[in-house]
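Form 12-C: Joint structure prediction
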Amino acid sequence: MNSTAIIEIQNLSKTFKGATEPAVNNISFSINKNEIFGLLGPNGAGKTTTISILCGLFPPSSGQVFIDGKSLETQLQSIKQIVGIVPQDIALYPTLTARENLSFFGHMYGLKGKDLKNKIEIWLEKLGLSESANRLVATYSGGMKRRVNLIAGVLHSPKILFLDEPTVGVDVQSRNVIIEHLKEINTEGTTIIYTSHHMEEAENFCTKVCIIDNGKIITQGTPEELISKNESTTNLEHVFLQLTNTKLRD
Amino acid sequence: MISKLIASVKKEALLLLRDRVGLSILFIMPMVLIFVMTLIQDAAFKTINEKGIPIVFVNNDNDSLGNQIANGLMHNDLCSYNDSINGKLATAELAQKAVADGKFLVGVVIPKGATEAIRKSVTNLVNQTLDNSNLKASTNIAISDSVEITILIDPVAKKSFINSVTSNLHEFISEIKTKIMFQTFSEQIADVIPDKKNAPKSAYSQTQIIKYKEVYASKNEDKIIPNAVQHNVPAWAIFAMFFIAIPLSGSIMKEKNEGSVFRLHTMPSSYLLLVNGKIIVYVLVCMLQFLLMLTVGLYFLPMLGLPKLVLGNSYFAIFLLTMATAFAATGYGVMVGTLASTEHQAAIMGSLSILLLSALGGVWVPSYVMPEVMRNISAFSPLNWALSGFYKLFLRGGNVSHIIYDVLKLMFFFFVTMIIAHFAHTKKRTV
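Section 2 - Result
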């Protein structure tokens, strides 16, 4: 694995307008090239806020972010070109077919012509959607929508892929297909930043994890390192519960 | 950049084509409005102008005055003459009741002996003049005129309308009275002049010193008569174009709700490029809408017996003004869609504001009949700019130079709405 950092986050904070507490509170970490980096935490921990800042959806209140050596503050447009995102909610046009959706999003990433067509066909084939590609997305099952949602984020072969709970609400079959292809993308050179509530999935999928709560980093390391830190923990879920406690979150 | 714009236009067109409710709002609703409003207004126009004003006439005189007025009313296109009520010869009492019941708008009662009273009055005047031929007081002698004609008026009728009808009746009756008086005067003079060859002939009826000609001050080569079609087709076409704000703002809100806008913000494409895709599609839709409305005015309304729409002299000016109106309407839709927070809010904000702007703009009621305060406010409605521009082209026969100011105002409105939308969008993203 290449150990050079592709994402550098320094003292990142975000306080939303009208909020008394920061959603992200002075966090710093780096993500190496080709890593599958799991950003884990309970609801309201600050995972989605962190990913949204990294994607350029809104600016941080303070701190600096460098992606592939470029400053997020000054070179956002060129960063957007090398980044892909698979959001938590389905971000597709329901009244367009899967093929029309992918064609539109592909064009927005600067793909065109045969190259775009080929990529769409390859991905539809890989994720088992070729036969239903001309159906409106509104008629798809949850799992099928998730798969199209994933393709829309990876079509332009991004250097960095942000996945915000990509397998939420899908059946085991769809989840396995998604995880399998994400691993394939990673082996082809894409760095993955991933958030999930599935601790077992994260343990098996991620090469490094960072647990955050209340906007702060609690711990980070490989899943094996975190599990072995405490003798009473046998898996990542135990580690997670021990660090974030069992109290219900809003 | 171009391929991104084409993709954005294609996506927008597909979304619109699959939105059947939105399409029906854009095309069917304004067509129905044009048909309904034109037919209603044309029917009202016909009641007064083609069938004529329903008048009941009571001729108790049965002599020259009564007969000539009856004859005049019978042959006047403005009147629908009646001298009987429910099969009975009209009397003053029956006429009053019928007018009060709303069966007739106006009733005219000529009293018994009216002609005789005029003749007597003139004879007295002549005799008096001749008897005092040595005196220079003839100008001080007044003609005694005690004939009282009663004009009955429907109390429900509009005052301005009744004023116009009664003043026409007054003028008409006075003319006949004068004619009778002049004839009687000529006959009396002829009797006392020894040389009857030199006696003045009654030439009154052949002489018309002042003539009137009413011409519409239009530069149009065709003779355009203002009618319900000339007013309603452009008015409702503009209304429909601005109604595009509802599906357009709805489409912006849908993108927000369905999450696609979230993905678009993470992509290396500017918001302006995505909005431009919408603007291109919706401007084209507006142009199509207008073309369809013109087709309705040119071909479909005449099939229903309505007048054919006359387009004026400059097709290029129509194109230019339509384009500017389309941009103004689309800009307004983008602004509403950006300012609103929910789809429901966008629909209410869009529809109510368009209704208000169209009422102010003179779509429902022409702005010239509005009170002065409202007329001044009306001058700020973009629908009023567009409508007054189309009136200049369709009714006054204007060309590009006559509408350029309206075009510039509409384009200015478009840029203002886009600037507001840009700031609102930026502000909403600053969380």
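Section 3 - Comments
Residues 8-45+222-429 of chain B form one domain. The interface with chain A takes residues 3-4, 6-8, 10-11, 14-15, 18-19, 258-260, 262-269, 429-431 of chain B (CB under 8 Å).
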